[in-house]
Amino acid sequence: MRPIISTTIGNTTYEPCIEPLKCVITRSDLYSDSTGRSAETGTLMQYPIRTGLYSIELEYLGNDLEIEQIETMIGATKFSVSFIYNGVVKTAIMYPSDRVNDTEIILNGEGRHRLSFTLIEV
């Protein structure tokens, strides 16, 4: 089963054409700059801004056309992503990190690429 079900940019929904080699989903909490330890007691003083933010680290291996399709899927500055987390379909507005596209081999004019990036919840 594909961990990323689809992305939606505007009114267009995209589905990945290939399975990722790697998919790591992280949930993070975002704290204020004021978070820290008390100088008097050493007690942690937490000031959460948001909790449970998702980021999805992905890596794909594919030919020219497959990698172009994945790049189109994540081509906007922010978009809706439907993904599976612990067996449940989640949807979040995300943006893509820098994308690294390593060309591993070119044979008969067709490239084989390794594309990696992270989707980060807005």
Report on the structure:
The protein is mainly beta. It has one domain: Elongation Factor Tu (Ef-tu), domain 3, CATH 2.40.30. Helices cover 8% and strands 61% of the residues. The chain is built from one helix and ten strands. It has one helix at residues 64-73; strands at 4-9, 12-14, 22-31, 36-37, 44-45, 48-63, 79-85, 88-96, 100-107, 110-121. The strands form two sheets. Strands 1, 2, 3, 6, 7, 8, 9 and 10 form an eight-stranded antiparallel β-sheet that branches. The radius of gyration is 18 Å and the shape is elongated. The protein starts with a strand and ends with a strand.
Descriptive terms for the model:
Elongation Factor Tu (Ef-tu), domain 3, two-stranded antiparallel sheet, 1 helix
